[in-house]
Design a protein that fits this description.
The structure holds three protein chains of three kinds. By secondary structure, chain A is α/β, with parallel strands linked by helices. Chain A contains five helices and eight strands; from the N terminus they run ααββββββββααα. Chain A folds into three domains: 30 residues; 99 residues; 41 residues, no CATH class. In chain A, strands 7-1-4-3-2-6-5-8 form an eight-stranded mixed beta sheet, with no helix packed on it. The longest helix of chain A has 22 residues. Chain B has one domain: P-loop containing nucleotide triphosphate hydrolases (Rossmann fold, 3-Layer(aba) Sandwich). Chain B contains ten helices and ten strands. In chain B, helix 6 links the parallel strand 7 and strand 8. Classes of the chains: A alpha/beta, B alpha/beta, C mainly alpha. At the B-C interface, helix 2 and helix 3 of B face helix 5 and helix 6 of C.
């Protein structure tokens, strides 16, 4: 009986270890000692704390916190970067989306300066998250403001087909009202 | 030293306003076998629970060794209960423990005796009830009489001063009954304890009891030695001792008028 | 005449509702009282740990088979169903995430608790109810042994210890079942299956929260089973009813608690 209980508990511990190592991100989230830098964005989209920070596609750190700066009306993002990786001071921080509808992450693009970022530094060059609705509305707005024949020409140029099929395509694209 | 180990003084007890006992007085002298007799439902078992402190009286008190039971706190009651052993109606053996472990249970729970000594004591107790050979059995493998004997061994495991028996003869064959009967008397004398027997089996009880109380409708209806009670001319005692169907204890439970009830039911329907 | 009849039935209905309400509240209070007494008298179940160990064997080890087998099937079904939908959106690699998150966050703790209520909870209720019916608890009390310390507390701690272990095993075995369907049978890429899972399952937010859930369910399920057994009327019918109630109340409590806990955990 004691033996069975021992086996039972051991199995439980093994399963927990398995979950932590194989399934969870305990191994990958333990990115060793980190240093933190900040960056402000006008719009962070749906970026969340603990989102990955990648450079050249490799996870180099994680987003620590996102707060709203009420003086500048900007989002202040603190990110933790693994101490093993050093980045130049003029590194560029972007917010990207993994896939079309995937999660958002911070991408770092190294600049050319010799001085490296230190704990508490601020990344000055940033690019906001691309918000899909904004993009669509911009696109539609620019289309609407264009003179009509121009639009038709562009359409025709894009699709070298006869007028009939263009009309069908148009409705399919959903921009018929414009 | 008080010659009576248990004293019941003007005790009343009832549930929800209906009194089961109305001012009962009893004494249980040391070293004696005292029986409480009465019909089914006369509150005999409840008396044992009152002595054991499992329930509280509405009025009056029970004193065990001079201590008022219902005034004790939890520790006090547990201390009193260590002086008591109780044999339940159906033995109440722990079904998940073997015969040996059942008898060893109170020793393991309440004392710090080493396992080797517990083993010797358990075998002695089992030997006293004649079941040393069955120490390995589980309670489900025992017959009713054997289970009762194991329970008896468990009740006397810690050599109590008071041994209480709740219907020790109920549902036993004549041989087992005789064995239990004999054991109660011999254990009582060997341990120098006081036995309280709750029973309605007249023949066996009268055989071993030194003194008998009759309980009826919440009161002590009669008391005395078995010999006196056999001669008693009190109608209730006579009916009980000789097992007559009708007498002061009526066949019918009190009810409203038979005819009126049957007719009344009809008229209520037509209403 | 009709008016008085109407009034009569109305008072009776209201009275019935009131009676049931007070009855429920009384039971809730009695259950809470038993819970605190159990905690208060828990010393013995740790001092003499073999008492608890024995109960872990009966509640935990004996539930192992049903848990492992159900987990395996649940994992396989999850992978099948998930793949069916995910491949429509061209993201069948996310199958690992789907299986792991569903299991670790919800199905692991909840299904384990439901199975536990059915397998171990009923056994506990029936056992304690029978002990009460056959006067074993009474006998223990008359021996100056506290039944709460000797019978209730070890079973309580055994349940509380067993549940998280069972839930963890459920999640792990379920993920293995999902893996077997997704990778060798359907042909999802092995590396993508695990790496997507690792990228999206967080140790603290998902795994630890799942553990917390199962711990809470363990307390609730075991306590309900113990209380129903302890409170059962000492008759065969009473015990059978109490056993049924254990399953019904435990299941409802687990599902309701799951909602509450999830809403707390997702706030962050």
């Amino acid at each position: 009986m004691d033996l069975w209980v021992g086996v039972f508990v051991a199995l439980g511990v093994a399963a927990l270890l398995g979950l932590a190592m194989k399934v969870g991100n305990l191994t990958s989230s333990q990115i060793g000692p980190t240093y933190s830098v900040t960056a402000s964005f006008e719009n962070v989209g749906s970026l969340k704390p603990r989102a990955p920070v990648k450079s050249a596609g490799v996870v180099v750190g994680r987003v620590d916190s996102i707060v709203f700066d009420s003086k500048k009306y900007e989002a202040l993002v603190t990110i933790n970067i693994d101490k093993r990786y050093a980045f130049p001071k003029d590194t560029f921080a972007n917010i990207y989306t993994a896939g079309l509808l995937g999660e958002q992450y911070v991408g770092l693009e190294a600049g050319g300066e010799d001085d490296a970022l230190k704990n508490g530094d601020k990344i000055s060059q940033t690019q906001d998250a691309i918000v899909l609705e904004k993009m669509i509305s911009q696109f539609l707005f620019s289309k609407a403001s264009e003179p009509k024949p121009d639009g038709k020409e562009a359409d025709a140029a894009n699709k070298p087909t006869d007028a009939k099929s263009t009309g069908v395509k148009k409705t399919e694209l959903g921009d018929a009202p414009f | 030293m008080n010659p009576n180990i248990v004293e019941i003084d003007n005790l009343s007890f009832g549930y929800k306003g209906r009194l089961l006992h109305k001012g009962i007085n009893m004494v249980f002298p040391r070293g004696k076998v005292v029986a409480i007799m009465g019909g089914s439902g006369s509150g005999k078992t409840t008396l044992l629970r009152l002595i054991g402190g499992q329930i509280k009286p509405s009025k009056g008190e029970v004193r065990v060794d001079g201590a008022v039971v219902h005034q004790q706190d939890r520790d006090g009651i547990y201390k009193l209960r260590r002086k008591m052993g109780m044999l339940f109606q159906h033995g109440a053996l722990f079904t998940d423990l073997s015969v040996f472990d059942n008898v060893a249970f109170p020793m393991r729970e309440l004392t710090d005796l080493p396992e080797s000594m517990i083993r010797d004591l358990v075998l002695m107790k089992l030997n006293a009830v004649g079941l040393r050979g069955a120490y390995n059995f589980m309670p489900t493998e025992l017959s009713g009489g054997m289970a009762r004997r194991v329970a008896l061994a468990r009740a006397v495991a810690l050599d109590p001063n008071i041994i209480m028996y709740d219907e020790p003869f109920a549902g036993l064959d004549p041989i087992s009954m005789a064995v239990i009967c004999d054991l109660i008397r011999s254990l009582n004398d060997a341990l120098g304890a006081t036995s309280i027997i709750v029973s309605h089996d007249v023949k066996e009880t009268f055989l071993i009891a030194d003194y008998v109380y009759f309980v009826a409708s919440g009161e002590v209806a009669a008391e005395g030695t078995p010999h006196d009670l056999m001669q008693s001319t009190l109608p209730f005692v006579h009916q009980f001792v000789h097992g007559e169907k009708d007498g002061p204890v009526p066949f019918h439970y009190p009810a409203s008028n038979y005819q009126a009830e049957l007719l009344g039911h009809k008229s209520a329907k037509s209403n | 005449m009709i008016k008085s009849k109407l009034l009569n039935s109305l008072t009776r209905t209201l009275g019935g509702i009131g009676y049931r309400m007070t009855e429920r509240i009384w039971r809730l209070g009695a259950g809470a009282r038993l819970f605190f007494l159990t905690i208060f008298y828990s010393g013995e179940s740790f001092k003499r740990f073999h008492l608890t160990l024995r109960e872990i064997y009966f509640t935990g080890v004996m539930s192992l088979l049903i848990i492992v087998v159900s987990a395996f099937f649940v994992g396989m079904v999850l992978a099948l169903q998930g793949y069916n939908t995910l491949q429509k959106y061209g993201s069948s690699e996310a199958i690992g995430v789907l299986v792991a998150l569903s299991l670790v966050r919800e199905l692991g703790p909840v299904v384990t608790a439901l199975l536990f209520a059915g397998r171990a909870g009923t056994a506990i209720t029936a056992e304690i109810g029978l002990m009460k019916t056959t006067e074993q608890l009474s006998a223990m009390e008359m021996m100056a042994v506290n039944p709460i310390a000797r019978v209730i507390a070890p079973r309580f701690w055994a349940g509380v210890i067993s549940m998280p272990i069972l839930a963890t095993l459920f999640s792990m075995v379920g993920i293995l079942g999902g893996y077997i369907v997704a990778v060798p049978l359907i042909g999802v890429d092995d590396g993508a299956f695990w790496s997507q899972m690792q990228a999206n399952v967080d140790f603290r937010l998902d795994i630890v929260n799942g553990l917390i859930k199962s711990l809470v369910f363990g307390v609730a399920c075991t306590m309900i089973a113990l209380f129903e057994g302890f409170d059962a009327p000492p008759t065969a019918e009473g015990v059978s009813r109490a056993t049924t109630r254990t399953v019904v109340i435990s299941s409802l409590t687990v599902l309701a608690l799951d909602f509450v806990l999830t809403s707390f955990m997702l706030v962050i």
